[in-house]
Amino acid sequence: MIKVMLVDDHAVLRDGLKNIIDLEKDIEVVGEAVSGEGALVKARETNPDIILMDINLPGESGIEVTRSIKSEYPHMKICVLTMYSHDEYFMAAIREGADGYLLKDSPSEQVIEAVRTIAGGESVIHPSMTKKLLTFHQQNNELEEASNELSEREKEVLMCLLEGLSNKEIAGKLFISDKTVKIHVSKIFKKFNVKSRSQVIIHAVQNQLVPLSHIRKDN
């Protein structure tokens, strides 16, 4: 059974999520909190596997709470569930250790699937957030020093992964075969010690391959 804790100051949203989750046989809500301070207390009491965390909370923000919980309980998975699609919130949440980032306009089925995916050790990122990475990468065609472990071709493939391109699309863009793309993607996964494309994105953010200081403040 996957134990979930809900952190949001809107009762209607919490009740809605709880009702949806209660329909699933393998997931249960073990606790709820309406503030940053309450989230820390409830996390200690219930020891959830996954926390669905809003950003805008009374007291400490969801990002600050994520930092505190990850510091004290690194085994707890946190998926930010917010209305904010701002670049800076996304980057900050991931760098503080969030395992996923979804927007509140996500279908309920997607939220449920995200819980299972994150519980399985992978990461989930709302599609619109990966597009934001592409926007400023096009403006700042660079990778930070932390990516020096990659070859030049692997860096090119990484950029394509951040754009959300499929292997076939990467092959067409870089004029290489699908097989060669698979080899490069496999090497990137191995060097980053990840298992999915979402985890590649999170690794890139947490290790500042995507420099926060260069993000445009369009929103």
UniProtKB/TrEMBL annotation:
Aminoacyl-tRNA synthetase listed as a keyword: no
Organism: Virgibacillus kekensis
Modified residues annotated as 4-aspartylphosphate in this record: D54
SUPFAM superfamilies listed in its UniProt record: C-terminal effector domain of the bipartite response regulators (SSF46894), CheY-like (SSF52172)
Keywords: DNA-binding, Phosphoprotein, Transcription, Transcription regulation
Subcellular location: Cytoplasm
Domain HTH luxR-type: 143-208
InterPro entries, per database record: CheY-like_superfamily, NreC/VraR/RcsB-like_REC, Sig_transdc_resp-reg_C-effctor, Sig_transdc_resp-reg_receiver, Tscrpt_reg_LuxR_C, WalR-like
PANTHER family assigned: TWO-COMPONENT RESPONSE REGULATOR
Occurrences of domain Response regulatory (ranges): 3-119
Keyword Ion transport: no
Designated name of the protein: Response regulator
